[in-house]
Amino acid sequence: MIAAALKRMATELPAGWRTRFAPAPTGWLHLGHAADALCVWGVARAFGGCVVLRVEDHDRERCRPEYERGLLEDLAWLGFAPDEYVPPQRDRTAAYHDALAQLERAGLAYPCACSRRDVAAHTDDVFNEESRYPGTCRLRALNAATVPARRVRMEPGTESFDDILLGPCTQDPDAQCGDFLIRDRRGFWTYQFAVTVDDYAQHIDVVIRGEDLLPSTGRQLRLARLLGRQQMPRFLHHPLIRHLGGIKLSKSAGDTGIRELREAGRSPAEVLGAAAHAAGFIREPRPIIAADAAALFGG
Ligand code: GLU
After folding, report:
1. C-alpha span between 46 and 234 (Å, rounded)
2. pLDDT attached to residue 242
């Protein structure tokens, strides 16, 4: 079924359509990243796409250069070669300033002085895992020169998209999270903002990522629309790894690290096989090499 949906998708996209692998250098790559890479490269290789590598280091406090070096090494060890490298997010500050200025000129962004605790205290929906921002600073006209945080206005209304794997999805960003942060109290650009500006500027046609990010998609579509993007990307949210197919060394989470597995003598094929099995891409565990990724998705 997914192969048929992917085939249809590919006929609707330009030749050499673009997808991206976008890890955050806030830790070492683990089996979940390996599964994600299999899906990104697999779908791209099977259906004529091009893979862009983007280092998502928007959170300047949590990112470390050794993690960035590590992820490039681990990807290469696994056998995944990007077709193109785009600048890491630390080098995209001017683009984020421009996008923010565009929203501000349109009256769509405003300074916010609320702490996380303020937002949690005001949230009215206790069943919602996320705190919905109640709009406290919308009418406060705070001094933009002294308050670093910015939020984007969300009006009620839904965003719909046809996920390649999950089918039709509808989300209402205003009900989910309300006006969300595009720059935080520390002055760092947020994930939602950086990823939306980048996917637009870098002409990403298909976003392939784990289904933990599914709730973000509606707000990224809304933000892209507010920034003037006409042709929205397609989305494929794949399952996260659920069970570890016997490769886990002990109970600690660190043991699914690509480095640990490599140092424990596992081959790239064993690691990718375990990742593919744990994500449900194959029924029975077997070794897989990166060049086989296309075959997993119908190529
Ligand atoms: N940088 C995000 C992460 O490491 C992924 C971003 C995305 O695929 O939208 O989880």
Report:
1. 16
2. 73
